[in-house]
TrEMBL record:
Residues 1-38 are annotated as: Disordered. Pfam families: CMS1. This is CMS1 protein. One of its GO terms (cellular component) is nucleus. SUPFAM superfamilies: P-loop containing nucleoside triphosphate hydrolases (SSF52540). InterPro entries: Cms1, P-loop_NTPase.
Length: 202
């Protein structure tokens, strides 16, 4: 009888240990099950309110609200990058010819990584024509090099990461006054299935 009594609590302990070893859900597992949805203007508005909501006053939050006229139609996942740009910017050839300002771009494309930026630059060949594209990311390119290039030459499209673009704007190396289009690479997911907006640093 004593042996039976001693064995029982041991069995209970084992079962509690097994219960504790449950697999944690990773964000990539959750994202894998969710179907990709094309981004809409409301997504960006919600993100801005979430991010600045606690630190800003009501008036400041109202100023952050962008009107619907600020947004062009989003890519509904049926277009390639070049065909999407052709649709939203039919007068690109004229805009490209008229742009003569240094330290600025007509179109700014923001992506989550340097590799993704290179992918997009390759995929926009049929759209860009003979215009000059500037890589605006940190991988293998020093910020001083980019600042010199912006000062000396005229560039039409800038493709890069938010961190590097922010650094260039803060140092007055990149002026946004002549910018007509800002494209956010919203729908693309990386290996961990994160979109640009799912990365905390961004």
């Amino acid at each position: 009888p004593t042996e039976c009594f001693l064995n029982q609590p041991e069995e209970k302990q084992e079962s509690t240990v097994k219960a504790k070893k449950r697999k944690k859900k990773k964000i990539s597992d959750v994202l894998q099950k969710s179907a990709p949805k094309p981004g809409v203007p409301a997504d960006l508005q919600n993100l801005l309110t979430q991010h600045f909501g606690e630190n800003r006053s009501v008036i400041e939050r109202e100023e952050l609200q962008l009107s619907d006229s600020c947004f062009l139609p989003a890519n509904d996942l049926t277009h390639s990058f070049s065909s999407y740009l052709k649709e939203i910017c039919p007068k690109w050839a004229k805009l490209r010819r008229n742009h003569k300002e240094k330290k600025s771009v007509v179109m700014l494309v923001l992506c989550s990584s340097a590799l993704r930026s290179l992918e997009l630059i390759k995929s926009m060949t049929s759209f860009k024509g003979d215009c000059r594209v500037l890589k605006l990311f940190a991988k293998h390119i020093k910020i001083k090099e980019q600042m010199n290039m912006l000062e000396k030459g005229v560039f039409h499209i800038g493709v890069g990461t938010p961190g590097r673009v922010k650094a260039l704007v803060e140092q007055d190396a990149l002026c946004l006054n002549s910018m007509k289009y800002m494209i956010l690479d919203w729908n693309w997911r990386d290996q961990k299935l994160r979109r640009m907006v799912d990365i905390p640093e961004v």
